Amino acid sequence: MRYALFALPLILLVALVSVFAFSIDRDSTLVRSVLIDKPVPDFTLPAVEGLDAPGFDTSSLSGEVTVVNVFASWCIPCRDEHPLLETLKAETGVRLFGINHSDAPENARAFLAELGNPYDAVGADRDRRVSIDWGVYGVPETFLVDADGVITYKHVGPLTPAAIETELLPALEKARG
């Protein structure tokens, strides 16, 4: 019995190290979403104050394939991925909506004024409620919504040229049918 009490912490340590060892090579962008192949959550986002782009809601995401990107002005990876979103919009003509996550309107406006605004609509999610409903872990995250308003793809973290080429564009083509 005495030996079991001494061995228990060692056994727990070995188990914990094993979990970390098996997880170390996992791709963090492969976060599964329970919303894949489900309709977008019911929501309404107002426009960012003073921005020349409308807000949007659930019904806005029906009728046409749409890429929805969750971003914030304070997010460094969002700044890095932004030129890729502009290129995606220019090259594919896909409808691109932005969810501005937990941001002051003046900061969101300054971010888009500096980097350009590729978004057809930008909704202000100041209280992060809509982001939570979408299952957002952090910014940036990108979703693909088909013409029926169903989420068909999710990318966690900043988009990269490789992710766009091997994941997003094939998903976009499939959604366009």
Automatic annotation (TrEMBL):
One of its GO terms (cellular component) is outer membrane-bounded periplasmic space. It holds the Pfam family Redoxin. CDD domains: TlpA_like_DsbE. Keywords: Cytochrome c-type biogenesis, Disulfide bond, Redox-active center. It is found in: Cell envelope. It comes from the Bacteria. This is DsbE family thiol:disulfide interchange protein. PANTHER family: THIOL:DISULFIDE INTERCHANGE PROTEIN DSBE. The lineage of its organism: Bacteria, Pseudomonadati, Pseudomonadota, Alphaproteobacteria, Hyphomicrobiales. Residues 34-177 form the Thioredoxin domain.
